[in-house]
Write a structure and sequence with these properties.
The complex is a heterodimer of chains A (107) and B (122). With 107 residues, chain A is mostly beta strands. Chain A contains no helices and 11 strands. Chain B is mainly β and 122 residues long. Chain B is built from no helices and 11 strands. In chain B, strands 2, 4, 5, 6, 9, 10 and 11 form a 7-stranded mixed beta sheet that branches. In chain B, strands 1-3-8-7 form a 4-stranded antiparallel beta sheet, with no helix packed on it. Chain B is globular. The termini of chain B are far apart. Classes of the chains: A mainly beta (107), B mainly beta (122). Chains A and B meet through strand 5 and strand 10 of A and strand 10 of B.
Chain lengths: 107, 122
């Protein structure tokens, strides 16, 4: 199985900050990497697919980059509604696996 | 707008079968060329992929659950189902159904149900 490791596991930042979350795969996955946002009691919401493609309807302050084994999700200007847990997911090989999550809170 | 809704018994006894249905509304299930899948999330923990099914019936499962899991489709009812056999307490989780974004199961999931909590207990 491909292991996905996210860092940091938790982060606190202020409104307006630029925030970067990292996801590392245990082997190369080209650009088969997706990012989800999950708020408490809610289903995950797709933000970024194929490493850098913005899902329709997602604010442009979210962006993704990376290829191979190292990926980042960047929020250019943090908003209060961005408080959530963020998960990366690889869709390169079976089983499809997720990172452990990164909890982002607003100071 | 496409919507998914999970339904099924919320409490299952150990060694029995967990059965869930996902009803697709706002679009015709068989008119899409998509894969449909199931995920789960134990309380306070991360997400786990269970498997995907194609509307014509092909399916892919997580190796850790293969042998216990079956995902099937009912195109006439605009539904797809999950059956997980021989459950234990470790199978207690919120179960989500979802649609794969593209036409291959190894793709991001762009539409999700709200999730349903399943508890395995006697």
């Amino acid at each position: 199985d491909i292991q996905m490791t996210q860092s940091p596991s938790s982060l606190s930042a202020s409104v307006g900050d630029r925030v970067t979350l990292t996801c590392r795969a245990s082997q190369g996955i080209i650009t088969s990497l997706n990012w989800y946002q999950q708020k408490p009691g809610k289903a995950p919401k797709l933000l970024i697919y194929a490493a850098s493609s913005l899902q329709s309807g997602v604010p442009s302050r979210f962006s993704g980059s990376g290829s191979g084994a190292d990926f980042t999700l960047t929020i250019s200007s943090l908003q209060p509604e961005d408080s959530a847990t963020y998960y990366c997911q690889q869709t390169y090989s079976v089983p499809l696996t997720f990172g452990q999550g990164a909890r982002l809170t607003i100071k | 707008q496409l919507q998914l809704q999970e339904s099924g018994a919320g409490l299952v006894k150990p060694s029995e079968t967990l059965s869930l249905t996902c009803t697709v509304s706002g679009g015709s299930f068989s008119d899409t060329n998509n894969y449909w899948g199931w995920f789960r999330q134990p309380p306070g923990r991360g997400l786990e992929w269970i498997g995907n099914v194609y509307f014509r019936g092909g399916s892919y499962y997580s190796p850790s659950l293969r042998g216990r899991v079956t995902i099937s489709v009912d195109t006439s009812g605009n539904q797809f189902s999950l059956n997980l056999h021989s459950v234990t307490a470790a199978d207690s989780a919120v179960y989500y159904c979802a649609k794969a974004r593209g036409t291959y199961f190894m793709d991001a999931s762009d539409v999700w149900g709200q999730g349903t909590m399943i508890t395995v207990s006697s």
